[in-house]
Amino acid sequence: MRAIIIAGGQPGSDDGQQWAQAGDLIIGADGGAARALAWGLVPGVVVGDLDSLTEEEQQELQAHGCRFIVHPRAKDETDLELALSYAAHQGAGEIVVIGALGGRLDHLLANVLLLALPELEGVSVRIVDGRQEARLVRGGEAVTLGGQPGDLVSLLPVGGDVRGVTTAGLAWPLAGETLRFGFSRGVSNEMTGPVARVEVEEGYLLVVHSRRQEAG
Question: What pTM value is reported for the model?
Answer without folding.
Answer: 0.91
